[in-house]
Amino acid sequence: MQGSIGTTTYMAVACQKCKSEQVEMNKRGFSLPTMFRTLGNMIGLMLFLLVFYYIGIKTDILVVKTIDGDLDDAPAAATMAIIKGIGILALPLSALLGFLGSSRLIKACKACGFKAMVPKAK
Questions:
Q1: pLDDT at 36
Q2: Are residues 77 and 93 in the same domain?
Q3: Which of 27, 20, 41 is nearest to 94 (CA)?
Q4: Of 32, 50, 44, nearest to 94 (Cα)?
Q5: How many angstroms separate the CA atoms of 105 and 29, rounded?
Q6: Side-chain half-sphere of 5: how many Cα atoms within 13 Å?
Q7: Which keywords has UniProt assigned to this entry (predicted)?
Q8: Distance CA 117, CA 105 (A)
Q9: Which residues lie across from 25 on neighbouring strands?
Q10: 68 and 85, same domain (yes or no)
C-alpha cells in the first residue's frame, strides 16, 4: 500500500494474508524447538553409541588382540571417550544453536494473527 504525507511518499507494510496494515515487527528471539531438537538428536546419538559400546564389549568387537596375544581395549576406551564428549557438549551446543536466527525480524498481523519472516536485505 502506498500513501503520502505532504510531499513524502511512503510504503506501508501490509499482511500477506488479509492485506491489513495492522502489522507489528519483532525480533524472533531464542528458539526452544531448535534447542530441544538438537539436544534430542545428541542424546539419541549418545544412546546409539552406548548400545554399540555394550554390544561391542559383550561380543569382543571392541577388543583387539595385539601381536603379543594380549587383549587391548583401546577401541572401547575411545568409544567411551566419544560418548562422554557428546554428553558434555550436548547442552551448551544445543543452547547455542537455539540462538541461531534470533536477530531475524518477524512481522505479525494483529488482525488475523498471521506471522511471516522478513526476508534479509540484499
A1: 94
A2: yes
A3: 41
A4: 32
A5: 9
A6: 3
A7: Membrane, Transmembrane, Transmembrane helix
A8: 6
A9: 107
A10: yes
Q: 73: which 3 cell numbers?
A: 581395549
- What is the distance between the alpha carbons of residues 14 and 41, in angstroms, rounded to a whole number? 38
> What is the number of structural domains in the chain?
2
Q: Each residue of 29-88: pLDDT tens digit? A: 888 999 999 999 999 999 999 998 888 888 877 777 777 777 777 888 888 899 999 999
User: Helix, strand or coil for residue 26?
Assistant: strand
Interatomic CA distance for residues 2 and 4, integer angstroms: 7
Residues 110, 71 within the same domain: no
Q: Are residues 46 and 90 in the same domain?
A: yes
Same domain, 57 and 76: yes
Q: 14-43 burial by CB neighbour count: b if 16+ within 10 A, else e?
A: ebeeeeeeebeeeebeebeebbeebbeebe
Together in a domain, 68 and 89: yes
Range(s) of the domain holding residue 115: 1-27+104-122
Residues 76 and 63 in one domain: yes
